[in-house]
Amino acid sequence: MVRVSFEPTHDMLVSELRIALLSALYAEQKNLPLIVRMEDGKRSEEMERREDELLEILSLFGISYTQLYYKSNNFKYHLQFASTLLDRKKAFICFCPEDKASPYDGACEPLSNEEILNNPSPFVIRMKPSSKTSDSCIIMQRDKYPTAIFATACDDMLQGVSTIIREEKYRDDASKEAWVREALGYEEALNYLYVPTLENAEAWSVKALLDEGFMPEAITQYLLALGTEWQRCEEQTNTPVAFDKEALRQMNRACIQNLSDMELSKRLGYACENIGKLAKLYTNTLNTTAEIKGKIDAIFAKKEPLKGFEKESQTLQKLILEAPYFESYDAFESYLTEKSGLRNEAFFKPLCYLLTGEEQGLDLAQSYPFIKNYLKEIVR
Question: What is residue 238's predicted lDDT score, i.e. its pLDDT?
Fold first, then answer.
């Protein structure tokens, strides 16, 4: 069983999506179930909203799972396990202030039961050091909530998790989690696999990239192209990989070009193959669907006469609305020049603006075949 976790206190980061994609890929390759764990704490409406967004993103990226569970549902077990560790002398109560120097010096470890009972101060529960870890890590906080490492160790044990894929920077957590499980008498070893840490990823959420017009296919291909060579616990993967947005842009452009014309049109909010063909003309200079949609929407938006060419704009607009249908752009242009008497800049600037929403937009001869059926809607 492969487990992937999310903390619903922030938007999903690209580094978290990368681990989810790799976990899903590994689970598929090994024919293992994939489970999703929500690292929720004190419940709130904001947290529930983010949970829904996280699950929507998993669905959008085709990541399916067999089970979804919440850390908060196991709080009663976390308390029971902490109590068990105290009884077994594998953990101890600590009254030291939070700013106690790290690593912890074990000041409270030798306290007697009487000293503990007579001390009214708030306390945490710490693991006793072992041969696997010299750190007396905190497992239960002053508010009686488990720390992330302790809750993770307990939940993976309860769920029967067998494999976890992580970034290299979280390697040190594994020994602490293993010590917790061993202290509780759990003998099954977990298979920790590591991938290089993704640098520059903290600034980018998946939602932000999607809003910018990066497609799920491109994001998936890019993140998986960074490497699917997971390393076992004893192997080192010290060289990080960088999140390169420019490289993602190039991959996104290729994905847009490979979409069918109708599919691209639908993703831009339309439903016509010609709109998809028109959109692909913009991939010579643009890389995202949001950028391209802005251009397409500008074509169909109602336009005021072009400043400096108000009269010419009105003349051409009237002629286009009254013009017959022309199959070719050359015939269309010849008709307008003859009827308007306009030439050079006075003709081409307002015409380009009327048809593209820009003074210098797409080449009109290139775009005309895809907009000729919409001319009267475009210049309305």
Answer: 66
